[in-house]
């Protein structure tokens, strides 16, 4: 795992300072690679490549980058891990390569040299952001892994092309004009993150998952797709699992075990995150099944029991016999992370679960350099609660032939707190403490007749037309569509499948994986995600629907596998998120901090936000009339980002 940087100035003549610029860019990524950093420069062509190294495989200098190919044609920088490197090395044996070491980087590079880029990409199993300088053709090639696990930003203007793992490196090199992109800002306010393909800066973009971008000396750019989630869905539909449920579960278990075992290869200490949920418990169970000694597992607990999963994680760890470490953190421990978020996420990012993820990463890094995580199971195997109740909302909408908007308005007459009090005395069963928030979230969706429009609305925080009516830039810009939205309509996907496609192509990439990458790399920890092995994703789309969601329960296939290792009483419990009590914090310990950030005039002047809309949202939240925690947090993170990166 590393941080990569680079600069190409093909049209410049005279003295170039590329080496100094890339050195500065490298320094900004020290957290991604504390074990070393090098810069390779070719003054004749104006190319400079840099890397900060977190040594995982082959700790010797033979694994250092930037790395030239044996034939001298290519120079590569690469961030990630390839888990079938030894298989590929064996296939390359017929070329009698004089290997310099045993790093996966060298295997990728020699595969490119002997098989070509396109053919090699088909064979790679892993996570990666790769940039390759082709000396022969004088072209730069950028590649991002199939599911977008590793980030890669780039900019091309004023005769310069530059790239980096994080925006802060481009800023440090002075190659990234800090002009906010109006469309990206709108999308951030809608979803809480900037979707792939865009960046918060107008002249900068992020390589999309499964894409390869080639740039030649004339500045011509070719963006091509080498792996498509949409193709995976179609192939899954056309090649449904032909056997019975038992054989499907066995095949999935074998595939998951292979994905997990491949990710346990490292020349440094390795462990796993364990929350006690289905996904992380399955990953740890499979790790322990192939390990020769107890696997190191880590979890954190909170004083607030509504957000505390430590007891569940501890019970799973005890049953599996792992070497478990548990840290209970106080509210103050979590609050201490808040001022660091704008630096950690150098693009506006609203997901407050980045706070416990950062704490978990710091805890884990004290003992190990690599950790496996259970991220990615919800999207493929149907784990999100919203998949269940969004379908129920669709049924409710169908039952209301007219007047849905009036019913929606009536449901919000009572505040969330008032709904909670009403429901607390009704025999509704289950946990009612947040039912008011759920009613307020569902109510406006009842007036939307189209299923996909309703789901997109469910994902949205703010309507940019309302929040920033006078600062939205070019109204003629193309309308942004959630990745997978048009595909789902054109292929008439069922509602749950459409939700899964859209989540995999945007929410998983730009929220979940961004959160994990930045939080873990801030602690110099490599996190590997076996449930996002592309082979697992492809197999998941071949499974029948009832092995995903059945009778109001999600992730049936994973549950069936986990039942072989863990008792039912540790599996069958309500799903809880990995979060923090944000709503209470904004009414309590974070209130003054929040009010200070929201009082900054620059927030409204620079971004065109309507101050009255924000202040009303804050007042309503403080009074308990509505729960605006997530909406407010998105504006607070924007203000904190602005203060850190635009001031």
UniProtKB/TrEMBL annotation:
Residues 2-218 form the Glutamine amidotransferase type-2 domain. It is an enzyme of class 6 (ligase). Its EC number is 6.3.5.4. Pathway: Amino-acid biosynthesis; L-asparagine biosynthesis; L-asparagine from L-aspartate (L-Gln route): step 1/1. It comes from the Bacteria. L-glutamine binds at residue 104. Pfam families: Asn_synthase, GATase_6. SUPFAM superfamilies: Adenine nucleotide alpha hydrolases-like, N-terminal nucleophile aminohydrolases (Ntn hydrolases). One of its GO terms (biological process) is asparagine biosynthetic process. ATP binds at residues 300, 373-374. Belongs to the asparagine synthetase family. NCBIfam families: asn_synth_AEB. PANTHER family: ASPARAGINE SYNTHETASE (PTHR43284:SF1), ASPARAGINE SYNTHETASE (GLUTAMINE-HYDROLYZING) (PTHR43284). This is asparagine synthase (glutamine-hydrolyzing).
